[in-house]
Design goal:
Structural class: alpha/beta
CATH superfamily of the largest domain: 1, 4-beta cellobiohydrolase
Largest sheet: 8 strands, mixed
CATH topology of the largest domain: TIM Barrel
Number of helices: 13
Helix content: 25-40%
CATH architecture of the largest domain: Alpha-Beta Barrel
Number of domains: 2
Strand content: 15-25%
Oligomer: single chain
């Protein structure tokens, strides 16, 4: 149900990680000195693990669709461009093996290194994936173990985070997932956790969502899957439940698993529960990806599910994983990108769901009869408390005249939307100029509801030849600056 699966031949190698562990002391900068252990992975701060935040790829699925639809579907292309402005996790499965797997990981790691951010990967090839549902598939156990080892070995010495197999644990209550499969799941996932921890990579295990499995049952499954040796767990992947509800649930699970950290998928929860897990009508983009420091065990809000990708052939959608332009447009139109994060109440009530959801005709894990609480978002998002980095985008960096370089884009900071963000342009590492992002950009206001005066267009002097141009949005509040990335431009 998460994305389409393309069957392919595995080219993976065997995976002993022992040789790599000794390297960690001098290479792995995000974690404390010395070989990585469960203790170091679990005790590191979220800021250490995520740096400047989750990594945004210029070649994401949304970015590719923005280009592909530019002529045939202008409205769809505009929606895809909006989605492409934010970090989305990179999914790895049967469609990424061998050299393709290596290249996918290396490109994300290299891009993240340039921007000081952290790539988030999703493993999605576990044996008997989805228990025969919309996204059925996966490797056999031996192939899967080798594939995981290859990923872990590729990530040694680099900052990264891994979302481990969405639905793998929450689905175990379904009739289509028998006891034997459950035992295999625990074995396979525990081994995967150990592989990533040995590589110094924080791994998050599946904890379903707030309306699926009771906290105590979920905690027991997480323990058997090795959560004490992982960073923690994730919730709400590909679902729609409000962030505050998910956080209240996650805090309960965390308390039952030794204070495990967690992340929440907010990719489509801007409008709350939509009555179905599959291509929920009226859904909107949720809070933009960001690192969180609110005194809880929450590490970050992430976009794990690719917004715009279909859940499957239900509610009018194409096959799982296929880009659905109409749905992407609706997500953007209904977006609540600035919804603030609020810490859960200490006495938050337990979810009302039973230990496992009722099985449906398609064996999908998200369909439940329990009504969801009303969405809490208002017509316009409330200001986010100080401490949020600016949101910014570079539209273009071109040289139209000899010795001159023009940079265009937009930036805003929810710490104070009335003030223009200062945008700094660096050429070959030196500041070439600064400009206030105060030009009219109605398109930005339509997408983010922040007012139109957030564009910038500046021309700076630059020597002729190939120049590395970097753009930084200077934070207004305490959240720090945002790197908008670098690009090589040939200056006339």
């Amino acid at each position: 149900m998460r994305r389409a699966v393309r069957r392919t031949t595995v080219l993976g190698s065997s995976g002993a990680l022992t040789a790599f562990v000794a390297v960690l002391a001098g290479v792995l900068t995000p974690l404390p000195a010395g070989a990585a252990t469960p203790s170091t992975v679990r005790s590191a701060t979220a800021a250490t693990l995520y740096g400047a935040g989750p990594y945004r790829s210029d070649t994401s699925e949304a970015a590719r669709q923005a280009t592909a639809l530019a002529t045939s579907d202008p409205a769809g292309a505009a929606a895809a461009r909006t989605i492409a402005q934010y970090p989305v996790a990179t999914w790895l499965g049967e469609w990424t093996t061998g050299a393709t797997l290596d290249r996918t990981i290396d490109q994300a790691v290299a891009g993240a290194t340039r921007t000081g951010t952290t790539p988030v990967f999703v493993t999605y090839a576990i044996p008997h994936r989805d228990c025969g549902g919309y996204s059925a598939g996966g490797f056999d156990e031996a192939t899967y173990d080798a594939w995981v080892d290859r990923i872990a070995a590729r990530l040694v010495g680099h900052r990264a985070a891994v979302i481990v197999e969405p639905d793998s644990l929450a689905m175990l209550g379904n009739a289509t997932c028998d006891t034997a499969l459950g035992e295999q799941r625990f074995r396979v996932l525990a081994r995967e956790v150990d592989a990533f921890t040995a590589a110094g990579v924080p791994a998050y295990l599946d904890a379903g969502n707030s309306n699926w499995v009771k906290p105590a049952v979920m905690a027991e499954r997480l323990e058997r899957a090795g959560v004490q040796r992982a960073r923690g767990f994730f919730t709400n992947v590909a679902n729609y439940y409000p962030t505050e509800r998910e956080q209240a649930y996650a805090e309960q699970v965390s308390a039952l698993t030794g204070g495990s950290r967690y992340v929440i998928d907010t990719s489509r929860n801007g409008q709350g529960w939509r009555g179905t897990w599959c291509n929920g009508p009226g859904a909107g983009l949720g809070t933009t990806p960001r690192v969180v420091s609110d005194g809880s065990r929450l590490d970050a809000l992430l976009w794990v599910k690719t917004p715009g990708a279909s859940d499957g052939t239900c509610d009018g959608g194409p096959r799982a994983g296929t880009w659905w332009s109409t749905y992407a447009q609706a997500l953007v139109a209904n977006a609540r990108l600035g919804t603030p994060v609020t810490a859960p109440a200490p006495t938050a009530p337990a979810p009302t769901a039973t230990a496992s959801p009722k099985a449906t005709a398609t064996a999908s894990p998200k369909a439940t009869a329990t009504p969801s609480p009303k969405a809490t978002a208002t017509a316009a998002p409330k200001p986010v408390a100080p401490g949020v980095r600016p949101t910014a985008h570079r539209d273009a960096a071109v040289s139209a005249a000899r010795g001159r370089l023009t940079v265009r884009g937009w930036a805003f900071d929810r710490d104070d939307l009335s003030r223009a963000v200062t945008v700094r342009v660096l050429v070959d590492g030196r500041t070439a100029g600064s400009v206030a992002a105060a030009r009219s950009r109605p398109d930005v206001d339509r997408a983010y509801r922040v007012g139109a005066a957030h564009g910038f267009d500046t021309t700076v002097a630059a020597a002729s030849g190939k120049r590395k141009v970097c753009v930084t949005a200077v934070g207004i509040g305490r959240g720090g600056d945002t790197s908008v990335g670098c690009v090589v431009v040939t200056v006339r």
